[in-house]
From TrEMBL:
Assigned keywords, A-Z: Signal
Keyword Signal: yes
Protein name: Uncharacterized protein
Signal peptide segment: 1-21
Species, as recorded: Lentinula aciculospora
Length: 146
């Protein structure tokens, strides 16, 4: 498990986007570091299937700082591979599960498209990015291929 790493990656990304436009913003952005508390998937034997079913991810909104109230979020799918020693989340940056939703919604909906050609694993995670990021507990996805 390494959500600190996810956070750091996102932070660098945010910085790299801002650096070119305004160094003043970098300082301001650095002060706003809210990591969402993910409430679902909650590690309670969650099993999803790729296909038409609409799933959701939820998080607490009470603690969103003022400066991040208008932010939109992005949800990435990733997984841990037990054969791999670097605790990489293998996040699929190219194909977010959901994006453009308001962080204050506290929920986002999506399907697991068969065209992702996933492998069935019990170690998938969802990463929610908006201000800083955090990852969910692990869940199982029973995969179908397109
Ligand atoms: C998991 O589900 C069981 C049975 O519904 C419930 O008692 C338990 O509180 C749940 N645990 C979590 C972490 O949600
Ligand atoms: C989110 O998903 C959970 C688990 O499938 C479900 O119990 C819940 O009703 C869903 N929430 C909404 C608002 O659709
Ligand atoms: C968020 O949006 C509202 C309404 O557009 C605006 O009044 C407020 O200043 C914005 N807050 C931030 C931190 O950008
Ligand atoms: C993980 O570590 C073991 C023992 O140190 C090593 O044999 C193996 O090649 C490593 N696997 C990867 C994917 O780096
Ligand atoms: C999924 O597999 C199909 C059949 O092998 C292939 O045509 C398609 O390009 C793959 N999609 C992705 C996103 O890899
Ligand atoms: C990240 O989310 C988990 C639930 O998946 C929660 O237990 C943890 O407190 C959150 N981490 C931070 C830094 O908010």
């Amino acid at each position: 498990m390494n959500f600190a790493n996810t956070f750091f990656t996102f932070f660098l990304l945010a910085l790299s986007q801002l650096v070119s436009t305004s160094p003043v913003l970098v300082t301001r952005e650095a002060e706003v570091v809210w990591s969402p508390t993910i409430t679902y998937p909650d590690g309670n034997d969650t099993v999803w299937q790729s296909g038409p079913t609409v799933y959701n991810m939820t998080w607490y909104t009470d603690d969103i700082p003022e400066d991040a109230q208008n932010n939109t979020g992005v949800i990435m799918l990733g997984y841990f591979d037990n054969d791999d020693n670097d605790s990489d989340e293998h996040l699929d940056w190219k194909r977010p599960l959901a994006s453009g939703f308001a962080l204050t919604d506290g929920i986002a909906y999506f399907t697991i498209e068969p065209s992702r050609n996933l492998t069935t694993r019990n170690s998938y995670v969802l990463c929610l990015l908006g201000d800083s990021g955090n990852i969910s507990k692990e869940l199982t996805i029973e995969a179908a291929q397109a």
